Amino acid sequence: MFTGLVEEIGHVSAVKTGTEAIQISIRATRILQDLTIGDSIAVNGACLTVTEKMRSGFTADVMPETIKSTALKTLKSGDPVNLERAMRADGRFGGHFVTGHVDGVGRIVRSYPKGNARYLIIKVPAELDAWLVEKGSVALDGTSLTVFAIQDARLTVALIPHTSDQSVLGQKKMGDSVNVECDVLQKYVMNAALKTTKTAQHLTYGKLLEHGFISH
């Protein structure tokens, strides 16, 4: 579990492509303090397992499903990446519940300044539309943000100067891809609502009578 508060911007030092998986090595400093092999770490919002720790960074494997559902497959040496260690039980919870399970890849279709903020409009896969709500939360490349608007599978978010400085989103431009993870709480609500609706559709007078919910 993560919070969506980026701890550090690391840089890809090597990418090794295998027959199915990808091995990524990342240069970092701050997150190495208590990092151990087997730890979970969010790389641009995707939860990866540390397989090797070096003095100047770490290595993680990217499995086929993660390759398929994220933009990690486009990373190359030198690229910056958002990094966050898994949340500690005794830590401060400042963002929102981020699982590190990316739902899809979005594309920046517009970027513009307004006041001291920078607004991004991102086209997301149509199937994510139901999981996004105005004033709700979303993680973009692992960064916790508030959805200002959502219409026709296009979501709008605002980056305050701190977020622009402390995450890779500040370096993104039109046409760039971002990993999108919708709020897990919204997913649970939608799933429960769909199950309730499906159950209600199968209720009949005969079934209610049979199970004792009503009487003649």
From TrEMBL:
PROSITE patterns: LUMAZINE_BIND. It holds the Pfam family Lum_binding. Pathway: Cofactor biosynthesis; riboflavin biosynthesis; riboflavin from 2-hydroxy-3-oxobutyl phosphate and 5-amino-6-(D-ribitylamino)uracil: step 2/2. It catalyses: 2 6,7-dimethyl-8-(1-D-ribityl)lumazine + H(+) = 5-amino-6-(D-ribitylamino)uracil + riboflavin. Keywords: Repeat, Riboflavin biosynthesis, Transferase. CDD domains: Riboflavin_synthase_like. Its EC number is 2.5.1.9. NCBIfam families: PRK09289.1, PRK13020.1, ribE. Homotrimer. This is Riboflavin synthase.
